[in-house]
UniProtKB/TrEMBL annotation, chains A, B, C:
Its cofactor is Mg(2+). Its EC number is 2.7.1.50. This is Hydroxyethylthiazole kinase. It holds the Pfam family HK. Catalyzes the phosphorylation of the hydroxyl group of 4-methyl-5-beta-hydroxyethylthiazole (THZ).
Length: 264, 264, 264
């Protein structure tokens, strides 16, 4: 069994401070549905979003950005070529990049795309329990984007996946686990209302790109990001009456939370 | 003249309960503008959205989903091929699907696409008065997406269209009419502020897909969906100060309304 | 040094009244990220949005719309062809159109697209200081979409650009400048929180299209639009707790502000 440690509040404070100070520019090749919330989450947290998907510029922009986020939520051939080219370039230039393997295991065509991207060496893979278990060769994947499994059930799969791909793996759910195969952190809290707002998971992946682009301690930074989002989710739930007001309150909370709020 | 009956509150309660219990997975091939609100409306109501548009997976996903929603708000050739293939597959597999013929009558190229999709046998066609009248061979269509006509003026066109295509036709406006050509329901109420929020009409169509995917009584389910949305719109208007706060309050209302709220 | 005059409140009232009365239909070929907020800003202000990007209809729709807005935030080849065709058609038919040269100077491929569009004769070019300075041959452009420079530093560049292209140039920032090379207006106020909400700049460009489509006094109308948005931004900031609630409050303010609110 893997030993799991909480990410301490002092680490959350430290890595959130770095994001606020460095204002990393994140190259987002994400799905059609979540582009606006993804940009707004980055802005609220203190990073800068840029969605660059043109045939003549998506690769070049890897050289300009601080980190890259790739999300296969709505893949189509033209966009998949951009994803692959950007991922290869990130690898070549040593820029950190994260893969969000949305709905892995549900559709054969998509799974091939996901596995090809995984072989291009993402620094972080972030998924829900169904996705991570499928990628680790367990289970059969989710029904669309909904996870059927608790994150606890995917912890061992996350560790194995991290070892196999020499990558950080983040499996999110009621508890988030963040592992590099050797060290495993957890982040707890949050509120289930967040699952009723589209793009909160996808934008978390992109926000992790901002956190890992601001430091060399990528595992701790990814875990800090998860804890920060859990706290924002709790705050938002206490300020809202349903998923519509939650969405606004969540962005407000990401914006208003300060590093010192985690030092208590 | 067609006899029109109100959809009773007990039916709204019944079909909303079914959506909440069955949590139908809806395959959305919709326009670029409304993807986020469409997903959020489905989530708030108790269904699951999936936007799947890839060349290698959109057809396959018809076999996985519970219902399909096609919206031609921003058609372009590549996406139109996906719409046609998904619609044909839905027909082949007997999966329910709905067509939202946005701006029918305004542009010749789009009209050809719409008529081809209509010949693929949608279970439901949902439009505003201008669109429905144009499709029934009356009037000249709308200026863009705005309806020039009241829904009352399109009732007869809706009935004829339903008969001609053996489809359910929903024409929305101040009063919504839901007809299969023989039986016609109406849903009243709502608030005009909803017309100042983009995607509320488009997402209603997709929500109807969720309702009709949960039962064999598709006509009653479609009418129940309209009445549920009217009520959420009224509640949202009373909780908001303009279209921005309405948007959030509308999602909150869809989420918070319970079947028993319609049994009174 | 260019003489600068404030746009008077009576002009803001006048041009806002025209938009509310004429309800101009704006053809938006904009970026993937901001489509929803763009449509909602137009609706809240009293205009009508239409996103038409199909190969067989984007040009034809120029003949139907009252004005065209082109934004190169997320260009890709297929969409760039649509932009060029729509811009040429607008020029041919004498329909007003605006160009938002997002991130000009950051990427060579995009810059070529921008300069080709500029040669097609936009009525208005709207950018931040970095973009306008780059287009005028000064500076090196911005890091992604963030402006590095204050709008004051770009005033001279805006005037020169306006003269060179016989176009109105709007450079936005803490102070907005609106110039045709001879007469220059300014609009002041606003709130920096608006920079934390994606699409507020892009949707301002599209809203300027609505204002200039409602009158022949395009310079004054563009300036009036900027002043209206500054006021809505101030109102929204006073009603919100962060960027999430600002977004909703901003749309509410655009909707609730009346022409007479500017006559005081």
């Amino acid at each position: 069994m893997t030993a799991v440690q909480f990410i301490p509040g002092s680490s959350v404070a430290e890595y959130l401070s770095l994001v606020r100070r460095k204002n990393p520019l994140i190259h987002c090749v994400t799905n059609e549905v979540v582009q606006e919330i993804t940009a707004n989450v980055l802005l609220a947290a203190g990073a800068s979003p840029a969605m660059v998907v043109g045939e003549g510029e998506a690769e070049d922009f890897v050289g300009i950005c601080d980190g890259l986020s790739i999300n296969v939520g709505t893949p189509f051939s033209m966009r998949v070529q951009i994803m692959k080219a950007a991922a290869r370039k990130a690898r070549e230039l040593g820029k950190p990049w994260i893969l969000d393997p949305v709905a892995a295991g549900a559709l054969v065509w998509r799974d091939k795309i996901i596995f090809e991207l995984m072989r291009t060496g993402p620094d972080v893979i972030r998924g829900n329990a169904s996705e991570i278990k499928f990628l680790a060769g367990q289970g059969s994947g989710g029904k669309g984007v909904d996870s059927m499994d608790s994150s606890d059930s995917a912890l061992q799969a996350a560790v194995e996946l991290a070892e196999h791909y020499s990558s950080i793996v983040v499996v999110t759910g009621r508890t988030d686990y963040i592992t590099d195969g050797t060290t495993t952190y957890s982040a707890e809290g949050g509120n289930p209302l967040i699952t009723k707002v589209v793009g909160t998971g996808c934008s978390l992946s992109t926000l992790i790109a901002a956190f890992i682009s601001s430091t060399d301690s990528k595992l701790e930074a990814a875990a800090a990001c998860c804890a920060y989002v859990k706290k924002a989710s709790e705050k938002a739930a206490s300020d809202s009456k349903g998923p519509g007001s939650f969405h606004a309150a969540y962005l407000d909370a990401l914006y208003n939370l300060k590093p010192e709020d985690f030092n208590a």
